[in-house]
Amino acid sequence: MGMSVTISAATEQDAEQIFRLQYLCFQSEAALYGNYRIDPLVQTLDSVRAEVTADCVFVARLGEEVVGSVRGSVTEDGSAAIGKLCVHPRLQGHGIGARLLRAAEAALTEQRGAKRFRLEAGHRSEGNLRLYRKVGYEAVGTSKGADGVPMVVLEKVAGTYAATA
Fold it and tell me: At 69, is the secondary structure helix, strand, or coil?
């Protein structure tokens, strides 16, 4: 009998698994840009622990294994920044990323009063951009990451969900 993937709020005990998963998942992004100094690869375990404690963090679990995660926080103006969405490479393409996004969006809206969501994706990250558009995000501009990678900035209003997600 196979297990199903469940989505839940992360706990402090999940920080190390999130840290390792993030390092694994963002290798392909680093290779795409030829830059192995991107934030998810240089973030420290202590920093991940701090985010799990302070931010809205969700994980996808397959049994006891953390196979996906996403983080979000709300700024004073009611905008929610969502980031570091990742799903284990062996489980990508099965809707886990969209489920993680929905869980984070719902919690950020209901518990922290988010009015709008904002996220960024590397300009060459077609799979990520496709997912974000599918769940209702629209490109609103560009930016440059601290690591120099050109980013596409995407937003959507809280409470809007794409029918195809």
Answer: strand
